[in-house]
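User: I'm putting together a small comparison set for a docking exercise, and I want a reference complex before I start. The sequence is below, and the ligand is guanosine-5'-diphosphate. Could you produce the 3D structure with the ligand included, as structure tokens?
Assistant: Of course. I'll restate your input first, then give the structure tokens for the complex.
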Amino acid sequence: MIIKSAEFVISNTKVEGCPAPVLPEYAFIGRSNVGKSSLINMLASRNGLAKTSSTPGKTRLINHFIINQEWYLVDLPGYGYARAGKDTRSGFMKITGEYISGRPNLMNLFVLIDVRLEPQKADQDFLFKLGESGIPFVIVFTKSDKLSKNQVQSNVAVYNKFLRQYWEEPPPQIISSSETGQGKDEILKFIEDTNRLFKPNR
Ligand SMILES: Nc1nc2c(ncn2[C@@H]2O[C@H](COP(=O)(O)OP(=O)(O)O)[C@@H](O)[C@H]2O)c(=O)[nH]1
Ligand SMILES: [Mg+2]
């Protein structure tokens, strides 16, 4: 897919304010600092479309972008930010939960995981809940440029060992780097293919 246009549409704290669900939609989520804003900018080839911030946990909003006037890209609040209080953390999860169950046009959720880290509690909790919700998702391992190819492979293997405790067939996975552009074509191809399955007015 060639990105011809990418524009910010609206930020919301509640799912009710989100655009009418008339276009296919893809949301991105992960722990704060996982590289979500960087990945969104890489996909859209627009530096500064999603703000990359050195202050993790700042984005508490559902941010809609429209790509090629054809599909929505959604930047969801990060989760598992250690310095946020418990109330703030559960607030993030409430928004996210309402969003996930309230968008009939949500085609896929991309769950970002830092490839350098062992399975983190916040990710495990989120993935289990997601598994129960039945929403299709793809795991995107981020920051692959920070490790050697071999280290990436062995960390992904560790992750899959964890996933197989709960999934007979581990969910689809893409390895990415916003530095090198790894994973960009694969993610955009996935979206392009999945867009064809969208049926409006479900
Ligand atoms: N080396 C490397 N650094 C990255 C990558 N993605 C993000 N970062 C860095 O990780 C930090 C957090 O990135 P950001 O996109 O703001 O994460 P977010 O909090 O998930 O939106 C920033 O310092 C980025 O420059 C990547 O693919 N490779
Ligand atoms: Mg961010």
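The helical segments are 36-44, 86-102, 121-133, 149-163, 184-195. The chain has a mean pLDDT of 90.
User: Thanks, that's exactly what I needed.
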